[in-house]
Write a structure and sequence with these properties.
- The protein has 32 helices and 9 strands.
- It has 771 residues and is mainly alpha-helical.
- It has 3 domains: 103 residues, no CATH class; 276 residues, no CATH class; 178 residues, no CATH class.
- Strands 1-4-9 form a 3-stranded antiparallel beta sheet. Strands 2-3 form a two-stranded antiparallel sheet. It has a two-stranded antiparallel ribbon with strand order 5-6.
- Helix 1 packs across helix 4, helix 7 packs across helix 22 and helix 28 crosses helix 29.
- 40% of the residues are buried.
Length: 771
């Protein structure tokens, strides 16, 4: 698929709303406060300081003792970001005035002089160095400072979404109900949105987000992010042998003697084990479901002092008898309740877990056995994988991007006794990652389960802690709870959760700031990033104000211009404008599960074949080796799309005609004996039937005399005409299509089969296969 999503179906979209005709609930606000010094914000900070200086020159960074200590705007609340930038500008300005031997100290430092701890950061002929030199010139000669020749975002640019067409309210409603609940809108929902417009969409979503289908989708979507079902060696391997040896394999000892037939007893045993494993794998995402369903603060994904257990998993933990009375159905493997585990007790008391409360120190997902098992430890990795995933999952930070790769690792190793604590190019990353790795030290065993390192934690790593704050000794037994508490208060947490919801709704990650400063389209790409970032931060601020109720984030994104964008009212007239709008508009290849749900929503039952190997071939994931869904179709996927369209149309066209008109979904106002070209009234009826199919299958409202209807009418008419010219054609639909219900109507005029071709054609359209 092309990257410019707004252009993909520009010629196909139905009538749309143009920005300005009806304002969305979030329009009119400018969520990101403007700074007085645009040059510092857009040039010095965005292109130099944030990328090259901030990692070390901040509290907790390797240069925290220097005169240049910066504040990270991303760690500030939305309203404090401008203050952080102003403070950073003040510090930079002070440094820009300092001279050393007739040269400005800051310029000498960044080039590696004056014993700069970070050595050479900027080359003297680089764009970044020139930006910094220009800032020094402006600070020291403000009256003479002219306009920089370095590109910057024009503050007088027209509104970002000017000329962008938006989905009309009913198409937006259909998109949301299909995406979040796997169904078409109800008549009541359509009536409400038709009457009240866009402002009614959040209220409708309140109802949608009470449906179990929404929570099924929520679990599926967050597993795409956390991948907790993806660890190997069986679900039970998350429960350590030292602590659950008597109970984790309870299904092997479960009494099935009441089943007399040996084969049935064997099948029951396999099902018991399969359900137990599925229930264990499902626990982390059931925690997310529980939090959202009960309108609890979403911070509980890192602070919850409980886990979710089912009757089957409770047996694995050895607590079933204690909690049995809390279940509505103690025999349901997938009914979950919140439970606090007691502190772990080892088989030989060697691995007893210290606890000041007597309970396991639960910390939401961070301490679930499945999350720890999915991201295990090794002797050389020392929990750094876990620290990396923690930053990525909960704070939106890619730890691998904190510093450039070491050019000569052998030289660094030879020069320093402990490179990760002494070499500047190593410290810049390890001073952030290693303290968090130390917080996982109670889960040191390679398989990821609880167990301390025999010789104690490593002394050649930075002490356990978080962002410059060391873990107090008294909190070591609850280190992950300590981490979770700080994570929940970090502004990056709210922003990251908002980004996760954006990914769930669009299938795309949020934009990252562009790094290629010499790119002639840098300013345009920077503006696109800033606009999306402003919207993200505004939603994050409301999310925090709503006590971290995740439902508010879905509602905010749903009515945002980023989600509603559906095309251009006028063509983008410049490369810059096209670059700005490159990521605007939602055109996502539906995942296998989503496509099956859409088929079921439209036709009443799923196709039923996008599972197992075919699901993987169609871009699915296994959460182990394949962890990202395909975004562009391959040749094999195209073949599957054609097969699906053929099968679904074949199965449902004749079945629909077999029903009374009042019960039909596809053809409520047309009969098989209406032929094209037979009468004007007949042609009108056929066109109206085509209009209905476009609306029902594709969600597109087209006029009966539109080009789309003309094209579809011609397809139908040509098939009927060619069939009439053939001799000896069977009067019945293909056996494959009618085999399950043989008493279906005959098709002497070949119209049912022609309508089947129309349905096949529509099912192969991008509007059905994408969203």
């Amino acid at each position: 698929m092309p990257t410019i999503r707004i252009a993909l179906i520009a010629s196909l979209i139905a009538p749309v709303a143009i920005v300005g005709a009806e304002e969305s609930p979030n329009r009119g606000e400018r969520p990101c406060a403007q700074t007085a010094d645009r040059f510092f914000a857009d040039e010095v900070w965005a292109k130099v300081a944030a990328q090259k200086c901030l990692t070390c020159h901040k509290a907790g960074g390797d240069a925290e003792e220097s005169q240049l200590v910066l504040r990270d705007p991303e760690r500030s609340q939305a309203e404090a970001k401008a203050d952080a930038l102003r403070q950073n500008r003040k510090v930079f300005a002070q440094m820009a005035k300092v001279k050393e031997a007739e040269e400005y100290k800051i310029l000498v430092k960044v080039a590696g002089g004056l014993d700069h701890g970070g050595e050479e950061v900027l080359k003297a002929d680089s764009t970044e160095y020139k930006i910094l030199a220009e800032f020094v010139r402006r600070v020291n000669a403000p009256a003479a400072a002219g306009i920089s020749d370095v590109a910057s975002v024009d503050p007088n640019s027209p509104p970002f979404f000017e000329g962008v067409a938006m989905l009309d309210d009913l198409r937006l409603l259909r998109r949301l109900t299909l995406s979040l609940a796997g169904r078409l809108p109800t008549a009541a929902e359509v009536e409400t949105v038709s009457r009240e417009g866009l402002k009614a969409v959040p209220t409708v979503l309140d109802g949608v987000m009470t449906e179990q289908a929404f929570y099924d989708r929520l679990r599926e979507a967050f597993n795409d992010i956390f991948l907790t079902v993806g660890y190997i060696d069986g679900a039970e391997s998350a429960l350590s042998y030292d602590h659950f040896s008597e109970t984790r394999h309870w299904t092997q000892k479960h009494d099935l003697s009441h089943i007399a037939d040996e084969k049935e007893r064997t099948r029951a045993g396999y099902k018991l084990a399969d359900d137990y494993r599925a229930a264990l794998f499902g626990e982390p995402m059931r925690l997310i479901e529980h939090i959202v369903k009960n309108d609890r603060p979403f911070t509980e994904i890192v602070t919850a002092d409980y886990i979710m257990v089912s009757p089957y998993t409770a047996r694995g933990y050895g607590i079933f008898d204690e909690v049995k009375s809390q279940f509505k159905n103690p025999d349901d493997p997938f009914e979950y309740i919140p439970v606090k585990l007691k502190a772990l007790v080892g088989r030989n008391r060697i691995e007893d877990q210290p606890s000041a409360t007597g309970f396991y120190p639960h910390a939401g997902l961070l301490s679930t056995f499945q999350y720890l098992r999915r991201y295990p430890n090794t002797e050389t990795n020392r929990n750094r994988l876990r620290a990396r995933m923690y930053y990525q999952h909960f704070l939106g930070v890619d730890a691998l991007e904190l510093a450039a790769r070491v050019a000569d690792a052998a030289a660094v190793t030879a020069k320093y006794e402990i490179p990760t604590m002494q070499a500047a190019e190593c410290v810049v990353c390890h001073k952030t990652v290693d303290p968090v790795a130390g917080l996982f030290q109670e889960y040191y065993k390679p398989e990821g389960v609880y167990g301390r390192r025999k010789d104690g934690w490593y002394q050649d790593m930075f002490a356990a802690g978080f962002e410059g704050e060391n873990l107090p000794k008294d909190d070591q037994w609850r280190a992950l709870q300590w981490l979770g508490e700080r994570t929940a208060k970090d502004p990056r947490f709210a922003t990251t959760m908002v980004e996760h919801v954006y990914y769930i709704l669009t299938g795309r990650k949020v934009l990252l700031p562009p790094k290629e400063l010499d790119d002639p389209l840098y300013a345009a790409k920077r503006r696109a990033y800033q606009e999306q970032r402003c919207q993200t931060e505004a939603i994050a601020a409301r999310f925090a104000a709503a006590n971290f109720n995740l439902k508010s984030v879905f509602k905010d994104w749903a009515v945002s211009d980023f989600y509603r964008a559906d095309g251009l009212a006028t063509a983008a007239d410049s490369p810059e404008r096209r670059a700005e709008l490159d990521d605007i508009g939602l055109v996502r290849l539906l995942a296998p599960e989503q496509l099956e749900r859409k088929v079921k929503a439209v036709f009443g039952q799923p196709w039923g074949r996008l599972e197992g190997p075919l699901e993987m071939l169609y871009g699915g994931i296994d959460s182990q080796e394949v962890t990202e869904r395909a975004t562009d179709p391959s040749g094999a996927m195209g073949a599957i799309q054609r097969t699906l369209a053929n099968d679904v149309a074949c199965r449902h066209t004749i079945r629909d005609f077999a029903k009374p008109p009042s019960e039909r979904l596809l053809f409520p106002r047309i009969e098989p004996d209406v032929l094209p070209g037979q009468s004007p009234e007949g042609d009108v009826a056929i066109r109206q039937a085509i209009v209905h199919l476009h609306a029902y299958i594709l969600g597109r409202n087209v006029d009966s005399d539109s080009v789309e209807v003309d094209r579809t009418f011609a397809l139908f008419a040509d098939i009927v005409k060619q069939a009439s010219e053939q001799k000896g054609l069977d009067n019945r639909e293909s056996y494959y299509c009618r085999r399950e219900t043989p008493d279906l109507p005959s098709d002497p005029n070949y119209t049912i089969r022609a309508w089947r071709a129309v349905v096949t054609y529509l099912l192969r359209r991008p509007e059905f296969l994408y969203e």
